User: What shape does this take?
Amino acid sequence: MQRINRAWHILSNPTRRARHDASVASPTVGMHPSWATAGGAASATWRPAPGPRTRRPTRPEPIEPSFGDRPWVMFAVSAMLALLFFIGTYLGSLSP
Assistant: This one.
């Protein structure tokens, strides 16, 4: 894990990365000839990813609650069910 952290520390900063690339003798040594570019791997340009650097993903836009998610709807449904229960209980007690 320390090696990974050290590599990230070097590669995350363009200045440190350029210094590291310059200190490496030949980046194409040991590579298959078809993998190496015409100017060698050192000629490739490195560009940071666009956008702000952050470890967290961007927050999604808030979603407006649907009709059933609103508190007053839940209260109205609960009140109707309670009313139906009491009416049914009352009407059931009237039968002989």
Observations:
- Residues 5 and 65 are 42 Å apart (CA to CA).
